[in-house]
């Protein structure tokens, strides 16, 4: 855990080992990413599986908590693929029940993981799938009571909340001009720099499960990154 905390504090402000440890205990598991050559921990992602009822329908959500990867390993897809395998496991447990990826995004990179890989997701730059807003409200009320603003559709934990350091995942004018998704993220979460979170959701359906492995393979061929391996703890 201490090595994960060392990685985390390198990229975030307003953190403490006490808060980090308490958050870790509340999760169901964690994926740890290790450099293949040395066994050094270079990233991790926590998760929590939860059952919800939305509009009278039972659904399952896999919530992603703290996620960070050392900058030199950005572009490596091993964490994404292992998370995808976990989604398959959860879908097989209850094949007839809707399954969703639940995430909160204080930076544009997390939002792009959703927007670039899911077909049905919310919030969407083109205003699609707005019916999922009700699902977002449901998990925010359960996981973060008192912090979700229905009007702004944001989680606001106050000025002292954890946020990305200034030199991590900044948004430039060129990025705004070239990416409609990044512009949309900033429009929906204009105070992201102080740690407000944009809650999001993606549907895990048969279309995603069939297409995602092929999409990841194509992206890996286009961009190489240092070799890493996953270790899952539950």
Summarize the structure in words.
- The protein has helices spanning 2-9, 17-25, 78-93, 108-115, 133-143, 173-178, 180-188, 206-222; strands at residues 12-13, 29-35, 41-54, 57-69, 99-105, 121-122, 148-149, 154-155, 163-164, 198-204, 228-233.
- The strands form three sheets. The protein has a seven-stranded mixed sheet, sandwiched between helices.
- It is 36% helix and 27% strand.
- It contains eight helices and eleven strands.
- It has one domain (2-233).
- Helix 4 (108-115) crosses helix 7.
- The protein has 234 residues and is α+β, with helices and mostly antiparallel strands.
- The longest helix has 17 residues, at 206-222.
What is this entry, summarized?
The protein is α+β, with helices and mostly antiparallel strands.
Which structural class best describes the helix and strand composition? alpha+beta
The percent of residues in helical segments reads: 25-40%
Query: What fraction strand?
Result: 25-35%
Q: End-to-end span in angstroms?
A: 14 Å
Order of helices and strands: HEHEEEHEHEHEEEHHEHE
Largest sheet: 7 strands, mixed
pLDDT < 50 runs, ≥5 residues: none
Strand order of the largest sheet: 6-10-5-4-3-2-11
Q: Tell me the radius of gyration.
A: 17 Å
Average predicted confidence as pLDDT: 85
What sort of overall outline do the alpha carbons produce when their principal axes are compared?
A: globular
Number of strands: 11
**How many structural domains?**
1
Enumerate how many helices there are, as a single number: 8
